[in-house]
Amino acid sequence: MEPTTKNNLVELIEYKKNYEPFISSFHLPPEKLQFTCYPLEKINDPNLSKESIHVLILNKDIPVGYFALESGAKVLKYTKNLNARLLTAFSINHDFQGNGFAKKGLHLLPCFVSKNLKNVNEIVLGVNKRNTAAINLYKKTGFVDHNEVYIGPSGEQHIMHLRIPLEKD
């Protein structure tokens, strides 16, 4: 079976401005906001590397989730791999939680990266040790915890890695 960036009606796409009305109405409860931020906060962050990519998880063309794939010096806080990207600000709109969109989106991630970021061979992330639901989700979708820790602004984070096979030309 050929890898795809689509899983039935769920797909990953790079953010486009026409989706702004949808993501501006994202709702995240306070217990989630302690671990992430709203999509537009990340998209409009002036400190973000210009090479960073904003990704939407779509269900039937409706944005239900968001994350950024950051590049630049920030990545090197999590890995020495110069061909890695840092996954940040992962969130699912509260109105769509509990439908498996996070899991489906993360399962599509390796193919999305292979197609859109040709030399990237790893995705890394930091997940707060108190966010056990996210840790379990990342493990179920292929991320590996090598017991590395990063002390971030909101406390201790597990550094998790996802290898991305490079496509053969």
UniProtKB/TrEMBL annotation:
Domain N-acetyltransferase, first and last residues per copy: 10-165
Keywords assigned: Acyltransferase, Transferase
Tagged with keyword Transferase: yes
InterPro entries found in the cross-reference section: Acyl_CoA_acyltransferase (IPR016181), GNAT_dom (IPR000182)
One Pfam entry name: Acetyltransf_1
PROSITE patterns documented for this protein: GNAT (PS51186)
Catalytic activity, EC: 2.3.1.-
Example GO molecular function: acyltransferase activity
Keyword Cell cycle: no
Protein name as it appears in the record: GNAT family N-acetyltransferase
Organism whose genome encodes this protein: Metabacillus halosaccharovorans
Organism phylogeny: Bacteria, Bacillati, Bacillota, Bacilli, Bacillales
